[in-house]
Design brief:
51% helix; 387 residues
Length: 387
């Protein structure tokens, strides 16, 4: 019955896509329904990453879609659909393709692209983005403690990174470190198997349990000059990548809400209490309408941001607004959905508990809600409220 009812895309933003993009998006949905959705909860429960899915995921041919001529709206909706099926797989996809592979496209030398780009696009090798540190998250731009010291044709790296998605198993990392001579921030392609690199899985997570986040320690690690990103001269160069990834987290917030609505509406229609479907009660219908409204508003914001990206006009305050607004709406949406399921909303058997928990990671990473709000506030007032 629920398959015949409107989705949470109540105003039909998907209809803004070109016809070939709509067809491709349906291919993505079909793949996720077959290969990801039936297994995602078990992966999450075991906190294990399904490496066997990588060749199939590569078969979609969707590494950095915009680089292949697709629209930013399509790229965003792909992330939303991945998240709708499994937030962890979407996060893996974003870290690998939209940070590591995108960095190769944007900053890589011709030699680096020749050596790594195609294999990375085909998921024959996997990448990570090593920026955050144990003591520096939001303030990492000014507080970065990982250092890079030039020594002839090599660089000696010392320091630590934390919360590195894909970090336990990736082949390479885009590593950020401070040049001890100039004080500037540089980017390197780090072979994760080099001597002096120690990777430790972060345990006891309540969100994104399938994602393999790692603590990375770097002790006198030698990286060849040929593996320095020649196109990165300062931390400002990271902003181009972070703007795009922050926007994609906004699309993840959309996907979280689509998933929560799907599960809550189906449950409400099928679950009977007091001799009638739960969906027949006024309070539940009001909650479902609020969930749909939040999702639609988030879609509207993200669709406009996508159009600004097409024009080359999207800026960091707009990206920060997109991330903070959509994740704020997401938190309310998943909480309402969890409530509709009652006690069944706190066990992963019914999916909603996983959606509810994963939302907390989306709410926090790529700049917390508060940090992104302050970026917008600074743009609105011309006054910085950062400490």
């Amino acid at each position: 019955m629920t398959s015949q009812l409107p989705t949470a895309d109540f105003l039909g933003f998907e209809g803004l896509l070109a016809s070939h993009e709509r067809e491709k998006l349906q291919d993505v949905r079909d793949f996720l329904a077959k290969e990801v959705a039936p297994c995602a909860t078990e992966w999450w429960n075991r906190a294990e990453f399904p490496h066997e899915i990588l060749p199939k995921l590569a078969g979609l041919g969707l590494s950095t879609p915009v680089q292949q001529g697709y629209s930013h709206l399509f790229s965003g909706l792909v992330i939303a659909e991945l998240t709708r099926a499994d937030t962890s797989i979407a996060t893996f996809f974003m870290v690998h393709h939209d940070l590591f592979v995108e960095a190769l496209h944007t900053f890589g030398s011709e030699d680096q692209k020749t050596r790594l780009l195609q294999d990375a696009m085909d998921l024959k090798i996997t990448g990570a983005f090593a920026l955050t540190e144990p003591l520096h998250g939001s303030d990492v731009a000014g507080g970065m403690e990982t250092t890079a010291t030039r020594d002839g044709d090599t660089w000696i790296i010392n320091g630590a990174k934390r919360w590195i998605g894909n970090g336990t198993f990736c082949d390479y990392m885009l590593l950020w470190a401070r040049d001890t001579e100039t004080g500037g921030v540089r980017g390197f392609i780090l072979d994760a198997t080099l001597p002096g690199v120690i990777r430790t899985a972060i345990a006891h997570k309540i969100a994104l349990r399938t994602v393999q986040n790692a603590d990375i320690t770097l002790t006198d690690v030698r990286i060849a000059e040929t593996d320095r990103f020649a196109g990165i001269d300062s931390f400002n160069d990271t902003r181009q990548l972070l703007l795009g990834s922050r926007i994609l987290v906004g699309w993840q917030a959309v996907g979280q809400q689509l998933a929560a609505f799907d599960v809550a509406r189906q449950y409400a229609v099928e679950r009977h209490q007091f001799g009638r479907p739960v969906a027949g009660f006024q309070l539940v219908q009001d909650q479902l309408v609020t969930m749909m409204g939040n999702t639609t508003a988030s879609l509207a914001v993200m669709a406009r941001i996508a159009h600004l990206q097409e024009e080359g006009a999207a800026d960091m305050p707009q990206a920060a607004f997109a991330k903070s607004f959509t994740t704020g709406r997401m938190r309310e949406t998943v909480a309402l959905g969890r409530g509709i399921l009652g006690g069944n909303g706190i066990v992963t058997d019914f999916r909603m508990a996983k959606i509810f928990a994963d939302a907390e990671a989306v709410y926090t990473y790529e700049g917390s809600y508060e940090i992104n709000s302050l970026i917008v506030g600074r743009a609105l007032t011309g006054i910085s409220a950062f400490a």
